[in-house]
Fold this protein.
Amino acid sequence: HRHLLGIKGLTEPDINLLLDKADAAVDISRQREKKTSTLRGLTQINLFFEASTRTQSSFELAGKRLGADVMNMSVGNSSVKKGETLIDTAMTLNAMHPDVLVVRHSSAGAAALLAQKVSCSVINAGDGQHEHPTQALLDALTIRRAKGKLSRIIVAICGDVLHSRVARSNILLLNAMGARVRVVAPATLLPNGIAQMGAEVYHSMEEGLKDADVVMMLRLQRERMSGAFVPSVREYFRYFGLDAEKLKAAKEDALVMHPGPMNRGVEIASEIADGPQSVIEQQVEMGVAVRMAVMETLLVSQNQGPRA
Ligand code: CP
Protein backbone atom coordinates (compact mmCIF):
# COMPACT_ATOMS: atom_id res chain seq x y z
CA HIS A 1 0.00 0.00 0.00
CA ARG A 2 1.42 3.37 -0.98
CA HIS A 3 -1.27 5.42 0.79
CA LEU A 4 -3.29 4.98 3.97
CA LEU A 5 -6.70 6.42 3.14
CA GLY A 6 -8.87 4.30 5.42
CA ILE A 7 -9.21 1.04 7.32
CA LYS A 8 -11.52 -0.22 4.57
CA GLY A 9 -9.52 -2.57 2.39
CA LEU A 10 -7.00 -3.54 5.09
CA THR A 11 -6.89 -7.23 6.01
CA GLU A 12 -6.24 -8.85 9.38
CA PRO A 13 -2.58 -9.58 8.44
CA ASP A 14 -2.11 -5.94 7.25
CA ILE A 15 -3.43 -4.69 10.59
CA ASN A 16 -1.39 -7.15 12.64
CA LEU A 17 1.78 -6.16 10.78
CA LEU A 18 1.17 -2.47 11.55
CA LEU A 19 0.39 -3.19 15.21
CA ASP A 20 3.50 -5.37 15.58
CA LYS A 21 5.66 -2.59 14.11
CA ALA A 22 3.95 -0.08 16.38
CA ASP A 23 4.77 -2.22 19.42
CA ALA A 24 8.45 -1.88 18.52
CA ALA A 25 8.01 1.89 18.04
CA VAL A 26 6.60 2.17 21.58
CA ASP A 27 9.93 0.84 22.88
CA ILE A 28 11.88 3.36 20.77
CA SER A 29 9.70 6.22 22.07
CA ARG A 30 10.37 5.21 25.69
CA GLN A 31 14.17 5.38 25.27
CA ARG A 32 16.16 8.49 26.10
CA GLU A 33 17.53 8.52 22.53
CA LYS A 34 14.37 8.46 20.42
CA LYS A 35 15.69 9.38 17.01
CA THR A 36 16.35 6.75 14.35
CA SER A 37 17.47 7.15 10.75
CA THR A 38 14.69 5.05 9.16
CA LEU A 39 13.31 7.98 7.12
CA ARG A 40 16.50 10.06 6.90
CA GLY A 41 16.46 12.29 3.84
CA LEU A 42 12.69 12.04 3.36
CA THR A 43 10.27 14.97 3.68
CA GLN A 44 6.90 14.86 5.45
CA ILE A 45 4.34 17.66 5.14
CA ASN A 46 1.40 17.88 7.55
CA LEU A 47 -1.52 19.65 5.92
CA PHE A 48 -4.33 20.17 8.44
CA PHE A 49 -7.40 22.10 7.29
CA GLU A 50 -9.21 21.28 10.56
CA ALA A 51 -8.09 21.80 14.15
CA SER A 52 -6.04 19.08 15.82
CA THR A 53 -4.03 18.65 19.00
CA ARG A 54 -3.25 14.92 19.15
CA THR A 55 -3.08 13.84 15.52
CA GLN A 56 -0.94 16.67 14.19
CA SER A 57 1.55 16.71 17.07
CA SER A 58 1.93 12.93 17.06
CA PHE A 59 2.49 12.80 13.29
CA GLU A 60 5.15 15.49 13.72
CA LEU A 61 6.89 13.62 16.54
CA ALA A 62 6.59 10.32 14.67
CA GLY A 63 8.29 11.78 11.59
CA LYS A 64 11.04 13.38 13.67
CA ARG A 65 11.68 10.16 15.61
CA LEU A 66 12.12 8.37 12.28
CA GLY A 67 14.60 11.01 11.13
CA ALA A 68 12.43 12.67 8.44
CA ASP A 69 12.33 16.40 7.77
CA VAL A 70 8.88 17.47 8.93
CA MET A 71 7.05 20.61 7.86
CA ASN A 72 3.74 21.70 9.35
CA MET A 73 1.80 23.72 6.82
CA SER A 74 0.04 26.48 8.70
CA VAL A 75 -3.24 26.53 6.79
CA GLY A 76 -4.57 29.47 8.81
CA ASN A 77 -1.74 31.67 7.49
CA SER A 78 -1.64 30.12 3.99
CA SER A 79 -3.07 31.23 0.67
CA VAL A 80 -6.11 29.04 1.43
CA LYS A 81 -7.22 32.29 3.12
CA LYS A 82 -7.03 33.96 -0.32
CA GLY A 83 -9.22 31.31 -1.92
CA GLU A 84 -6.67 28.74 -3.09
CA THR A 85 -8.33 25.33 -3.38
CA LEU A 86 -7.41 22.09 -1.65
CA ILE A 87 -6.04 20.60 -4.87
CA ASP A 88 -4.04 23.71 -5.85
CA THR A 89 -2.58 23.87 -2.36
CA ALA A 90 -1.61 20.21 -2.48
CA MET A 91 -0.14 20.48 -6.01
CA THR A 92 1.95 23.47 -4.90
CA LEU A 93 3.38 21.47 -2.03
CA ASN A 94 3.79 18.43 -4.32
CA ALA A 95 6.08 20.49 -6.57
CA MET A 96 8.48 20.73 -3.59
CA HIS A 97 8.97 16.92 -3.70
CA PRO A 98 7.63 15.74 -0.35
CA ASP A 99 7.62 11.98 0.26
CA VAL A 100 4.44 11.99 2.31
CA LEU A 101 1.48 14.33 2.81
CA VAL A 102 -0.56 13.90 5.99
CA VAL A 103 -3.97 15.43 5.35
CA ARG A 104 -6.92 16.39 7.55
CA HIS A 105 -9.94 17.98 5.90
CA SER A 106 -13.63 18.53 6.65
CA SER A 107 -14.76 16.75 3.45
CA ALA A 108 -15.14 12.98 3.16
CA GLY A 109 -12.86 11.73 0.38
CA ALA A 110 -10.40 14.65 0.53
CA ALA A 111 -7.37 12.44 1.17
CA ALA A 112 -8.39 9.98 -1.57
CA LEU A 113 -8.75 12.85 -4.02
CA LEU A 114 -5.27 14.14 -3.26
CA ALA A 115 -3.82 10.64 -3.54
CA GLN A 116 -4.90 10.62 -7.19
CA LYS A 117 -3.22 13.96 -7.87
CA VAL A 118 0.10 14.05 -6.03
CA SER A 119 3.17 11.91 -6.65
CA CYS A 120 3.90 11.06 -3.00
CA SER A 121 2.24 8.94 -0.32
CA VAL A 122 -0.90 10.34 1.29
CA ILE A 123 -2.08 9.52 4.81
CA ASN A 124 -5.62 10.35 5.87
CA ALA A 125 -5.54 12.12 9.25
CA GLY A 126 -9.35 12.47 9.28
CA ASP A 127 -11.69 13.29 6.38
CA GLY A 128 -15.09 14.70 7.32
CA GLN A 129 -17.34 12.05 8.81
CA HIS A 130 -15.69 9.29 6.77
CA GLU A 131 -12.50 7.76 8.26
CA HIS A 132 -9.66 8.38 10.71
CA PRO A 133 -7.56 5.25 10.17
CA THR A 134 -4.59 6.00 12.43
CA GLN A 135 -7.01 6.65 15.31
CA ALA A 136 -8.53 3.18 14.88
CA LEU A 137 -5.05 1.65 14.74
CA LEU A 138 -3.92 3.40 17.92
CA ASP A 139 -7.13 2.34 19.65
CA ALA A 140 -6.53 -1.25 18.55
CA LEU A 141 -2.94 -1.15 19.79
CA THR A 142 -4.12 0.18 23.18
CA ILE A 143 -6.69 -2.61 23.48
CA ARG A 144 -4.34 -5.35 22.26
CA ARG A 145 -1.63 -4.38 24.74
CA ALA A 146 -4.12 -4.33 27.63
CA LYS A 147 -6.18 -7.40 26.74
CA GLY A 148 -3.63 -9.42 24.78
CA LYS A 149 -5.95 -9.85 21.77
CA LEU A 150 -8.69 -8.24 19.70
CA SER A 151 -10.67 -11.28 18.63
CA ARG A 152 -13.93 -11.94 20.47
CA ILE A 153 -13.62 -8.96 22.83
CA ILE A 154 -16.77 -6.86 23.27
CA VAL A 155 -16.34 -3.18 22.44
CA ALA A 156 -19.16 -0.71 23.14
CA ILE A 157 -18.80 2.49 21.09
CA CYS A 158 -21.02 5.08 22.75
CA GLY A 159 -22.46 8.45 21.85
CA ASP A 160 -22.37 10.56 18.70
CA VAL A 161 -21.70 7.78 16.19
CA LEU A 162 -23.48 9.74 13.43
CA HIS A 163 -20.79 12.40 13.13
CA SER A 164 -17.82 10.22 14.03
CA ARG A 165 -15.10 9.19 11.59
CA VAL A 166 -13.43 7.58 14.61
CA ALA A 167 -16.43 5.27 15.07
CA ARG A 168 -16.50 4.30 11.38
CA SER A 169 -12.80 3.40 11.27
CA ASN A 170 -13.04 1.53 14.56
CA ILE A 171 -16.05 -0.51 13.46
CA LEU A 172 -14.23 -1.52 10.26
CA LEU A 173 -11.02 -2.44 12.08
CA LEU A 174 -12.62 -4.29 14.99
CA ASN A 175 -14.77 -6.33 12.63
CA ALA A 176 -11.73 -7.21 10.51
CA MET A 177 -10.01 -8.46 13.68
CA GLY A 178 -12.93 -10.56 14.90
CA ALA A 179 -14.06 -8.37 17.80
CA ARG A 180 -17.74 -7.92 18.72
CA VAL A 181 -18.81 -4.34 18.16
CA ARG A 182 -21.78 -2.58 19.74
CA VAL A 183 -22.93 0.97 19.25
CA VAL A 184 -24.85 2.67 22.05
CA ALA A 185 -26.62 5.92 21.16
CA PRO A 186 -29.95 7.64 20.78
CA ALA A 187 -31.50 6.87 17.36
CA THR A 188 -30.91 10.49 16.29
CA LEU A 189 -27.13 10.04 16.66
CA LEU A 190 -26.81 6.84 14.61
CA PRO A 191 -26.22 6.78 10.84
CA ASN A 192 -28.44 4.78 8.52
CA GLY A 193 -27.11 1.30 7.81
CA ILE A 194 -25.09 1.01 11.01
CA ALA A 195 -26.22 -2.60 11.60
CA GLN A 196 -25.03 -3.54 8.09
CA MET A 197 -21.60 -2.21 9.02
CA GLY A 198 -21.38 -4.99 11.58
CA ALA A 199 -22.43 -3.31 14.83
CA GLU A 200 -25.13 -4.40 17.28
CA VAL A 201 -27.35 -1.41 18.08
CA TYR A 202 -28.37 -0.40 21.63
CA HIS A 203 -30.23 2.66 22.84
CA SER A 204 -29.52 2.21 26.54
CA MET A 205 -26.13 2.38 28.25
CA GLU A 206 -27.11 -0.25 30.80
CA GLU A 207 -27.87 -2.83 28.10
CA GLY A 208 -25.12 -1.78 25.68
CA LEU A 209 -22.37 -1.84 28.30
CA LYS A 210 -23.35 -5.19 29.81
CA ASP A 211 -20.21 -7.39 29.99
CA ALA A 212 -18.26 -5.07 27.69
CA ASP A 213 -14.46 -5.39 27.72
CA VAL A 214 -14.01 -1.89 26.31
CA VAL A 215 -16.18 1.22 26.65
CA MET A 216 -15.24 3.72 23.97
CA MET A 217 -16.82 7.14 24.45
CA LEU A 218 -17.20 9.64 21.59
CA ARG A 219 -17.29 13.41 21.67
CA LEU A 220 -20.71 14.98 21.20
CA GLN A 221 -19.98 17.01 18.03
CA ARG A 222 -22.35 19.87 18.67
CA GLU A 223 -20.64 22.03 16.04
CA ARG A 224 -21.99 19.65 13.36
CA MET A 225 -25.61 19.87 14.63
CA SER A 226 -28.25 22.56 14.35
CA GLY A 227 -31.68 23.57 15.65
CA ALA A 228 -33.81 20.91 17.26
CA PHE A 229 -31.11 18.28 16.78
CA VAL A 230 -28.74 19.78 19.35
CA PRO A 231 -29.37 17.76 22.51
CA SER A 232 -29.41 19.45 25.91
CA VAL A 233 -26.15 18.71 27.69
CA ARG A 234 -27.87 17.85 30.97
CA GLU A 235 -30.24 15.38 29.34
CA TYR A 236 -27.48 13.88 27.24
CA PHE A 237 -25.20 13.35 30.22
CA ARG A 238 -28.02 11.82 32.25
CA TYR A 239 -28.82 9.15 29.65
CA PHE A 240 -25.59 8.70 27.67
CA GLY A 241 -22.78 10.27 29.72
CA LEU A 242 -20.41 7.71 31.23
CA ASP A 243 -20.41 7.91 35.02
CA ALA A 244 -19.54 5.42 37.79
CA GLU A 245 -23.06 4.02 37.91
CA LYS A 246 -23.31 3.28 34.18
CA LEU A 247 -19.79 1.86 34.06
CA LYS A 248 -20.79 -0.82 36.59
CA ALA A 249 -22.64 -2.64 33.80
CA ALA A 250 -19.37 -3.34 31.95
CA LYS A 251 -16.82 -5.96 33.03
CA GLU A 252 -14.97 -5.03 36.21
CA ASP A 253 -11.70 -4.66 34.30
CA ALA A 254 -13.23 -2.91 31.27
CA LEU A 255 -11.07 -0.26 29.61
CA VAL A 256 -12.47 3.25 29.30
CA MET A 257 -11.36 4.99 26.11
CA HIS A 258 -11.92 8.37 24.46
CA PRO A 259 -10.19 9.59 21.28
CA GLY A 260 -10.16 13.19 22.52
CA PRO A 261 -10.85 16.03 22.61
CA MET A 262 -13.11 15.29 25.60
CA ASN A 263 -16.11 17.25 26.78
CA ARG A 264 -15.95 16.55 30.51
CA GLY A 265 -19.41 16.42 32.02
CA VAL A 266 -21.03 15.95 28.60
CA GLU A 267 -20.15 12.46 27.36
CA ILE A 268 -17.89 11.44 30.26
CA ALA A 269 -17.63 12.32 33.96
CA SER A 270 -14.26 13.68 35.05
CA GLU A 271 -13.89 11.01 37.74
CA ILE A 272 -14.14 8.31 35.04
CA ALA A 273 -11.87 10.08 32.54
CA ASP A 274 -9.22 10.32 35.27
CA GLY A 275 -10.11 7.03 36.98
CA PRO A 276 -8.27 3.71 37.22
CA GLN A 277 -9.97 2.12 34.20
CA SER A 278 -9.17 5.03 31.87
CA VAL A 279 -6.52 4.40 29.18
CA ILE A 280 -6.96 7.79 27.52
CA GLU A 281 -3.32 8.80 28.07
CA GLN A 282 -2.09 5.42 26.80
CA GLN A 283 -4.11 6.06 23.63
CA VAL A 284 -2.12 9.25 23.08
CA GLU A 285 1.19 7.44 23.63
CA MET A 286 0.16 4.69 21.18
CA GLY A 287 -0.71 7.41 18.66
CA VAL A 288 2.94 8.32 18.12
CA ALA A 289 3.96 4.66 17.80
CA VAL A 290 1.21 3.81 15.32
CA ARG A 291 2.07 6.80 13.14
CA MET A 292 5.73 5.77 13.14
CA ALA A 293 4.69 2.27 12.05
CA VAL A 294 2.41 3.56 9.29
CA MET A 295 5.01 5.90 7.82
CA GLU A 296 7.76 3.30 8.00
CA THR A 297 5.53 0.76 6.25
CA LEU A 298 4.48 3.13 3.47
CA LEU A 299 7.76 4.88 2.89
CA VAL A 300 10.49 2.33 3.48
CA SER A 301 9.03 -0.43 1.31
CA GLN A 302 8.18 2.19 -1.33
CA ASN A 303 11.78 3.39 -1.47
CA GLN A 304 13.14 -0.11 -1.98
CA GLY A 305 11.92 -0.19 -5.56
CA PRO A 306 12.06 2.36 -8.38
CA ARG A 307 9.81 5.37 -7.80
CA ALA A 308 7.01 6.20 -10.21
N1 CP B 1 -8.36 12.11 18.32
C1 CP B 1 -8.07 13.14 17.51
O1 CP B 1 -8.11 13.06 16.29
O2 CP B 1 -7.71 14.31 18.17
P1 CP B 1 -7.28 15.68 17.46
O3 CP B 1 -8.50 16.21 16.77
O4 CP B 1 -6.82 16.58 18.60
O5 CP B 1 -6.17 15.38 16.50
The pocket of phosphoric acid mono(formamide)ester is lined by residues 52-55, 126, 135, 259-261 (CB under 6 Å). The CA atoms of residues 206 and 246 lie 6 Å apart. DSSP finds eleven helices and nine strands in the chain. The two ends are 14 Å apart (CA to CA).
